[in-house]
Amino acid sequence: MRIDLHTHSTASDGTDSPAELVRNAAAAGLDVVALTDHDTTRGYAEAIAALHGLSTGLTLVTGAELSCRVDGVSLHMLAYLFDPENAELLAERELVRDDRVPRAKGMIAKLNDLGVPVTWEQVARIAGDGSVGRPHIATALVELGVVPTVSDAFTEQWLANDGRAYVDKHETDPFEAIRLVKAAGGVTVFAHPGAAKRGRTVPETTIAKLAEAGLDGIEVDHMDHDEPTRERLRGLAADVGLLTTGSSDYHGSRKTCVLGEYTTDPEIYGEITRRATGAFPVPGAGGQRA
C-alpha cells in the first residue's frame, strides 16, 4: 500500500482543486491520501464527490493542518479523522482563519517597506477561494522576480518565521490543539518537526511533553528533513512512544514535492485509523476501504 498523509488543495494553499487532488492521487498510484488543508475542512465535500467517481480503490482520509505556536515557535499539527462539526475545534479553526487576511496584509506592508511592489490584489488573485497564507505571498514574489521559487521565499530574508517580512498570526497552543482534536475524536501528528530551514524548531524536550499530553505521532519522512534528522526523529519517537509517518506535503505546482514522494507504513496508518473515533476513512467506489 502507498499512503500519503499530508496534502493541500485550493481550499488552502495548494494549486489542485480538491477534486483534482483526488484524481491526481489515484493517477500517482496511491492507495490512501489525506486531505490536510490549513485550518479548514472546506475541501471535504468536493474531494469525496470526486473519490466516488474514480474507478480505482483510493481511500480518502479527512484532516487538517492546524497552525500552532509554543514558546514563540510556530509549528503545524496534522489532525486526522476528527469530527469536523465539533463546536470547540471549529471555533478555534475559525479564529486562526479569520486572522489570515490581516496577517497577509501586514506582510505585504512589510514587503512594500523593503521595496517589493507586491499588492493585496495580486495576493488575493493568487489565493482565489483558498485561505490566504504565506505560500500565496511567496508565489507573488516569484511572479515579481524577487525569488526564483516559492521555497526561496521562506528564508530570513523574506517570509520565514522571524524573517524580515514575517508577521505573527493567531496560532493555537499545541497542547490545546491536542486536547481539542482528541475531544473531537481525532488523531494528532506533529508535521515536519525538524524543518530547520523554515525557522526555529521545537526542542525535543517539548516534543516529549507533547507526547505526554497525548500527541500520537511525528512526521519523519518529509522533504525538509535530511537523513540525520530523520534518524534523530525516529530515535526520539521510539523513546517517547510516538508513531512515525511519511508524507509528501504536496501543494500541486506551488512546490517541487510530488504525491507519494514519501509515504507512511501501512501498520502505522492502521493504528491511526484504530485510534480515531470522530470520522472514518472514505473508500472510493472502485475498491474497499483501506
Describe it.
Strands 1, 2, 3, 4, 5, 6, 7 and 8 form an eight-stranded mixed β-sheet that branches. The mean pLDDT is 95. It is globular, with a radius of gyration of 18 Å. β2 (32-35), α2 and β3 (59-70) form a beta-alpha-beta unit. The longest helix is centred in the middle third of the chain and has 14 residues, at 100-113. It is of the alpha/beta class and 290 residues long. The chain contains eleven helices and eight strands.
Write a concise keyword list for the protein shown above.
290 residues, 8-stranded mixed beta sheet, alpha/beta
Count the DSSP helices: 11
The helical percent reads 25-40%
Q: Which structural category do the helix and sheet elements fall into?
A: alpha/beta
Strand tally: 8
Quick check: average pLDDT? 95
Brief rundown of the structure:
The chain has helices spanning 18-27, 44-51, 87-98, 100-113, 120-127, 134-143, 150-153, 174-183, 204-212, 227-240, 266-275, and strands spanning 3-4, 32-35, 59-70, 73-80, 187-190, 217-221, 243-246, 282-283. With 290 residues, the chain is α/β, with parallel strands linked by helices. The termini are close together.
SSE order and pairing:
Elements (H helix, E strand, L loop, with lengths): L2 E2 L13 H10 L4 E4 L8 H8 L7 E12 L2 E8 L6 H12 L1 H14 L6 H8 L6 H10 L6 H4 L20 H10 L3 E4 L13 H9 L4 E5 L5 H14 L2 E4 L19 H10 L6 E2 L7
Parallel strand pairs: 1-2, 2-3, 5-6, 6-7
Antiparallel strand pairs: 3-4, 3-8, 4-5
Helix pairs in contact: 1-2, 5-6
